[in-house]
Structures are given as structure tokens and as C-alpha cells.
Amino acid sequence: MAPVAVDGSGRLLNGFNGHKVDTMNPHDLVQFDKSLTPKKYEIKGTSPDSKILFTDVNIIDSTGSDPFQGDVYIEGERVKFVGSVPNKDSLIKNSNVRKVEGRGRTLMSGLGDAHVHFSWNEGDLGKLGGLGVEEHTLLTARSAQTYLDSGYTMCFGAASAKERLDCVVRDAINAGHLPGPRYLANGKEIAVPDGDLVAGITAFASGPLEMREVIRHHVKLGVDQIKLSMSGEQITETRDAQDCYFTDEETAACVDEGHRHGRRLCAHARARDSVKQCVKHGVDIIYHASWIDDEGMDMLEKNKTKHMVAPGLNWLIATIYESGAFGYSFEKAEQVGYKKELDVAIKGLKEMHRRGITVLPGGDYGFAWTPHGTYARDLEHFVKLLDFTPMESIVAATAGVAKLFMREEELGKIKPGYYADCILVDGDPLKDITVLQDHDKLNVIMINGRIHKASYKEFLRTETPQATIEPQAVPLTNYVAYSLDDGTKRTRIGHLDTKAGTIIPLSFASGTPLENLYQTIEIGRDQIIPGGEAFALTER
Ligand SMILES: [Zn+2]
Q: Which domains does the chain have, with CATH numbers?
């Protein structure tokens, strides 16, 4: 353990430099190398003329400051004003501005998840490998939409079950073809031979050279980050979570190759040694980290500006307590060691939080008993199990994940100039963090300045309804024949409006143009309708 001190007001002091630990915004200290910045993807399809005004909302801006009442004005893709909106009165009167009455509801940033598997099928993962590409693509796209439907606007891919699923769905979201969150895509998880955790979804490599080759292959596919599967997992019953299957040489080679191509690495690292290797060699994002020991904790603390941890806690909790209905009993989970792992993981993660190491929500959703759509449970776990305040939990899931995206200057906060990725929540998540799990309470979901979800009842109408004027029926019987000037010399029949000096083309009720006067006599005036735009006499 690093020496931990407490100041006069009981706040924890950082063990190694004496500064106060910032448990609200620890991610502010994280500095990934600039060369590792992912591509700044933009989502197409938002009109630059779009104007949306939220009035009377309780604003959680994700800086960690207390919430405040006010208005928020969005123009095009971005937030323009927060708190007080100049020219609010004229905006309210402007019929081109969509107005949402907040009535005190909470407006906050869309949520973020640091460990996402769009391509997991929330069923028998053993079947993932055999699923057809077409079916699997649809399933992946559906999960992407489920994230957005659940108020998530930032998702960090933690492995794709087929190598291009993540990439193609990311690209389709950005092209505006599919609804979904902002996404950083991953490829298949890389493991040593026999080190796979789920059959059929792993890229195998043995030794530094093969691993470099697999990483280069993934880079060519267009992934944004690389996933290493370094340790075991109890549910396999053959590959222990406390065992690390990568050698130092392999991990070092992977980091070198990934970083050389501007890609960060994330790792399934439950085992003590896998966490240490991540810190020693620079694996940027450490998943799970359950069995971290004192030495690993100190190493991580000293390097906390280079790493983020995402525990994926919900997997452990649900596997122990909620998988009975799926045939995986509590006794079984306890027997293979999940209960023990959860207990040590909670202890370690609390300690990380105390030491100002960045820990992000991200829950490994998409298994049978961790279904898609339940993602916000992670924020509750952080509050109930890891000693995060609700505000700390929200800031981690918004500004913290924005930092993981390396776009903290434009994502994850409700501030002028930031992308308008936000949710209007019917409730106060600072009083009850579980409200974020209730889809019915996510009244408005916006991404990129575009409304993804909102009832029509949300919009305040300020236009005065116009009295409906019945169109004056004018008989179209002042027939004239004219010929087309398209070189065919075909004739047409129209109605000459002598007052306006225009001719209205006439047609049968089917839409077929009338070509001669006999037709008007044959079918009778009641069957004749206007067949196109009126044109001036001089035009033809
Ligand atoms: Zn995972």
C-alpha cells in the first residue's frame, strides 16, 4: 500500500505527491499521448439550421459543480447557450425554434460506456462464432440503437465477435444510416492459442511477431483500438481469472505495435500479473483488474496519468446473483470463485477511487444475464459498491468517457460549444441514480443536436393556428389545346385562366394527361382534374 494521508478536513491526500486527490475529475489528469488520438468521427445528418430551446431545466453540466436551473439553447450540432439564453423571448416566438418545456426536469450529457460489445447476442455466446454475417450485422446494429435508446451517446468498443462488425456499424452510424451512439470500434480480441474465453470470436496469436501481425491486420480493417485477452475467466472453468496468459515480451510487442499505428490498447486483465503487465508496458485501458495486489496498485497509482480502468462490475454481480434463471446457479458461481472475485474487486476498485485513479463505468453488457438496455446499472454499482457519490458516478460516465474518447473539449458536458448529446430525465439522478435505468424516465434523448427520442407532447407550440380557408372550386372547363415544345409536337389540353393569364394542364383522374378535346367530351368534366403546375401563357 502506498502511504495514504488525510488532511485536516478529512480529505484524502495523494500518497506520493501530497496533493489533494480529485475523486470527482481524476480523468482530468490522464494524458494519453497525442499520437494515440482516435479519428474525430462526425455523425452526418443534422441540419445546421436546427434550433432547439430547452426551458426551465435542472442542468447537470458534468464538471462536478452543483446542478443549476436554467435554459439551454442548441443550434445545429452544438450547444450554444447554457443557463441564461440571450434573446430567449424572441426565440420562443420564433416558429423555427423547437421548444421543450423542461418543467424542472434534469438535462444532462448523454451517458458513456467504456466496455461495449455491440456484437454480443445476450444469449448463448457459444453460438456467436457460428452466426451468419448478415444476421450478426443486424444484431450488432440493433445493440447500437439500444445503447442510444438507453441514453448512451458514447460507446468504447471492447471487442467485436467478427472482425469488421464494429467498424461497419460505426461507419453506418456516422453516415447517418443507423441510429446509434458515437462509437470507437474494436476488432476481435487477441489471445494466445487456447486462451479464448468464448469459442469462435478470438484472433489467436503466439509470440511477439504473430501478435504484431494480428494488430497490423486489425489496423488495416479500421479499428480504433486493440483488445488483448490476457487473463482467464472463471466461467470457462479451464482458464482461471487469476492466470495471465501473456508473456512480458508479448504484451510489450503489442503495445509497441499498436501505439506505432496510433491505436490504444485495452485488455481483459483480471489476474494480478496481467494488471502489472498492463502498467509496466503501457496497455492504456485496463478492464476488470479484479485481482490487483498492493504492488500493482502502487504501480498503477504512480502511472495514473496514463491509464483508465473499467471494471465491468455488472458482469460479476449478475453472474453471481441473477444468472439462476439461465441455469447458472449462485452455488455454481460461488464455487468457481465469482463471489470471491467480486469481493476483492470491490476492495481494489474503492482503493483506486480513493487514490484518484480513473475508474469508468462500462459493463460488458450483452451476455444472457446482462442484457442490452440495462447499461445504466453500472452507475448504480459505482454508488452502492465503490463509494462514488452520484455526481462522481455521473461525471465518470460522461466527462470521464469523453476523456477516454480524447474529445473532452467537445463531448460529455453541457457547455457552450460542446456537441448537443444530451438527455432530459424525469427525475433527479443525484437523489436516485437508478432513475437513469428507467427508459420511461428518459423523456428526450438527443445526439449531435438531433432528437432521437421525444414524445410530440414535449414540444411547446407557439404558432397561432391559421383559420382554414376552403379552396374555391373553380370549374376547369375553359379548354384550350396546346402543343408540347419538346420536339414531339404532341398536344395537350389545359384550362385557360384568363384572369391570371395562365394555363392549368388537365388530366384523367388516373393522372394521364388529356391529349385532345374529344377526351374531355368522352369522360365528362367531373372526371377531369388538374394535371400539373399552372404555367404562364407566354411560356410555351
Ligand atoms: Zn468484455
A: 111-458 (3.20.20.140), 479-539 (no CATH)
